[in-house]
Specification:
The complex is a heterodimer of chains A (274) and B (360). Chain A is built from nine helices and twelve strands. With 274 residues, chain A is α/β, with parallel strands linked by helices. Chain A has two domains: 185 residues, Rossmann fold (3-Layer(aba) Sandwich); 71 residues, no CATH class. In chain A, a hairpin with a 6-residue loop joins strand 11 and strand 12. The radius of gyration of chain A is 20 Å and the shape is globular. The mean pLDDT of chain A is 93. By secondary structure, chain B is mainly alpha-helical. Chain B has a single domain, classed as ABC transporter involved in vitamin B12 uptake, BtuC (Orthogonal Bundle). Classes of the chains: A alpha/beta (274), B mainly alpha (360). The interface between A and B is large, with 47 and 36 residues. Bound molecules: adenosine-5'-diphosphate and magnesium ion. The site of magnesium ion has 4 residues of chain A, from helix 1.
Chain lengths: 274, 360
């Protein structure tokens, strides 16, 4: 298990401060989902956790060691990051892409060890990409493509996986498919998952730990059932909403109110379990 | 690595690959059989082309007689023509083509754009300014000895300037391209002024250099370039993993544990050494650095360890063909080989542009 924490972390682009003096510990072996309005700094925070961005102040600690002063290869063996909307080189096959996940274990001499082969095979299997291994990534559907990238991050064999909006641009079916995949990985292999999700309802359904980002820091965090209420939605998203239990899983379901449709058009509350 | 240490396993993932693992050393590799096949076919094509090419000219020699010459037999006059005049030129073509192709493959991988070429990081234009300045300022024959040195210094200076100007807490491919395009056009303007301001004879000499040719190549030139090409290709092969990682984008490369900026600088220096040395000996041969890597990727895909050797072979073959055309199409008049690489390269570039625009 690895322990990933942020300590007094401040992040900025030039003069613009995005995250201010944040303390945060990623719960081990759990699924953590970051939510928040557009531009609130979720991606920035995730990038900093993956040492893709240097902190303005403070530090990100991996197993107690400052990530900025740890060899980048060593970090890559403990922590994998899938950024938003990655673009594969033209013509690369799924297998070639997934193989890249073994980079932190390879050297010029040791380019394809048995461990590499096992990890790649397991990653292809877990994502259901084995039959598509020889296909070019650019010939795949959006959902398959995202699965190929996730397979690459899994092949990296890290205890912690960070993903920035892994379901964006996917239709509902494929969103569920990707989230189910990550959920299963967490259940079966105990991998720590930290991801940014846009869909509040899916975030509530899949997160063990929900983190709402606002005003350069964390507005609230905890189990979705404990922290999600109308007030949180109003403060984090500036939106009026009703929260009801998800009829399938009982997790909070957010029903946003509209501005354009008037209050008197609303139906009298319909029983949910119809 | 001796072969008896290696255990070839057929059961490797997928039929396209064979895993090679040493039982004693911590050494292993995944061999792409498709790349091996492509390399063998290209090498065979090059050998045939060499036999054919060495026999063509004002004195025609049958390919079988060329073969005899290589075997140390055959007529004296054939030996002289092949070894003294044609072979140095053929060998230089191969080295120049392979170097430009490898350089182009590195730049395209690093910048993540198949339309990039060594010209983009200022190598050709930097070399051109230095070479034309030398020709224009010293005029004529005295400059010829110093031309290669001036050219490679010019190439290195231009690339360094682009790198420094593009630096802002690291160098990104986009800034490298933007600064590269800007500086390259400024340099090419300077070159034009040099040529225009020179007397006609000098301007002619400069223009031939700018177009690029291996006319009058001698063994000394081949031996000058050989260590650059050999060391450059070997180093490129060692760095192949880094190029493959960088092709995935900066964030993913860093996430995988790549030391991005350091490796980018090393790769840039390597592409300058490869293309700069080739340009120093053959002038501004255009488009091979663009075309050859593209052909290689079409044949074996973008994995750099496989694409690099195939690209180098494609580049050698292209340059060999271009020089054969240069020597023979308007025989006995010689045309600079660069005319032919441009004649194929320019339409090819437009084709690539159009193809990319129509794809999403
Ligand atoms: N590369 C960048 N340079 C400058 N500002 C940026 C950059 N990336 C993001 N920002 C700004 O930082 C803020 C937070 O962005 P981001 O972390 O992407 O938000 P989120 O992922 O929550 O939508 C935004 O205001 C955005 O405009
Ligand atoms: Mg974002």
């Amino acid at each position: 298990m690895t322990k990933l924490t942020a300590s007094n972390l401040s992040l900025a682009y030039g003069r613009q401060l995005i995250i201010d003096n944040l303390d945060f510990a990623v719960p081990e072996g759990r699924i953590t989902v970051l939510i928040g309005a557009n531009g609130s700094g979720k991606s920035t925070l995730l990038r900093a956790l993956a040492r893709l961005m240097k902190p303005e102040a403070g530090a990100v600690l991996l197993d107690g060691k400052d990530i900025a002063h740890t060899s980048t290869k060593e970090v890559a063996r403990k922590l994998a990051m899938l950024p938003q909307g990655p673009v594969a080189p033209e013509g690369i096959t799924v297998l070639q892409l997934v193989k890249q996940g073994r980079y932190p274990y390879q050297s010029w001499l040791q380019q394809w060890s048995e461990a590499d082969e096992r990890a790649v095979r397991a990653a292809l299997e877990a994502t259901g990409m084995t039959p598509l291994a020889e296909r070019p990534v650019d010939a795949l559907s959006g959902g398959q493509r995202q699965r190929a990238w996730i397979a690459m991050t899994l092949a990296q064999g890290t205890a912690t996986v960070l993903l920035d909006e892994p379901t964006t641009y996917l239709d509902l079916t494929h969103q569920i498919e990707i989230l189910d995949l990550l959920y299963t990985l967490n259940e079966r292999e105990g991998r720590t998952v930290v991801m940014v999700l846009h869909d509040m309802n899916l975030a509530c359904r899949y997160a063990h730990h929900l983190v709402a980002v606002k005003d350069r820091g964390i507005y609230a965090q905890g189990a979705p059932g404990d922290i999600v209420n109308a007030e949180l939605i109003r403060n984090v998203f500036e939106l009026d909403a009703h929260i009801i239990p998800d009829p399938l899983y009982g997790t909070p379901l957010c029903i946003p109110a509209s501005q354009a449709r008037r209050a008197q058009e609303r139906q009298a509350a319909v029983p949910v379990h119809a | 690595m001796r072969s008896k240490h290696l255990a070839a396993e057929k059961k490797a993932s997928g039929s396209r690959y064979t895993a090679l693992r040493s039982r004693r050393l911590p050494a292993s590799a995944l061999l792409d059989k498709r790349a091996v096949l492509a390399a063998i076919v290209l090498a065979a094509a090059i050998i045939l082309m060499v036999l054919f090419s060495a026999g063509i000219g004002t004195m025609r020699i049958h390919p079988l007689d060329v073969l005899k010459v290589f075997a140390g037999q055959g007529q004296e006059v054939h030996k002289t023509v092949v070894f003294q005049f044609r072979l140095p030129r053929i060998a230089l073509s191969l080295l120049v083509g392979a170097s430009l192709a490898a350089s182009g493959a590195i730049v395209q991988g690093m910048i993540r754009n198949p339309l990039a070429s060594p010209d983009l990081v200022g190598i050709t234009n930097g070399a051109a300014v230095a070479a034309t300045s030398l020709i224009a300022l010293t005029g004529g024959a005295a400059s010829v000895r110093w031309l290669p040195l001036a050219a490679i210094c010019g190439a290195a200076a231009a690339a360094l300037l682009i790198y420094v100007l593009a630096w802002k807490r690291g160098v990104t491919p986009l800034r490298l391209v933007l600064v590269g395009i800007g500086l390259s056009s400024a340099l090419s303007a300077i070159t034009s002024v040099m040529v225009i301001a020179s007397p006609l004879r000098i301007a002619g000499q400069a223009l031939v250099w700018l177009t690029g040719s291996v006319y009058g190549a001698a063994w000394s030139g081949v031996l000058t370039l050989l260590p650059w090409t050999a060391a450059g290709l070997a180093l490129a092969f060692v760095l192949a993993r880094q190029v493959s990682a960088q092709q995935l984008g900066d964030d993913i490369a860093v996430g995988l544990g790549s030391r991005l900026q350091l490796q980018r600088l090393a790769l840039l220096a390597l592409s300058v050494a490869l293309a700069g040395s080739a340009v120093a000996l053959a002038g501004g041969i255009a488009f091979i650095g663009l075309m050859a890597p593209h052909m290689a990727r079409r044949l074996v895909g973008p994995a750099f360890g496989a694409a690099l050797p195939v690209a180098a072979l494609c580049g050698g073959l292209l340059m060999l063909a271009a020089d054969l055309a240069a020597r023979t199409v308007f025989m006995p008049t010689e045309i600079p080989a660069g005319v032919f690489t441009a004649a194929i390269g320019a339409p090819f570039f437009i084709y690539l542009l159009r193809r990319r625009r129509s794809s999403p």
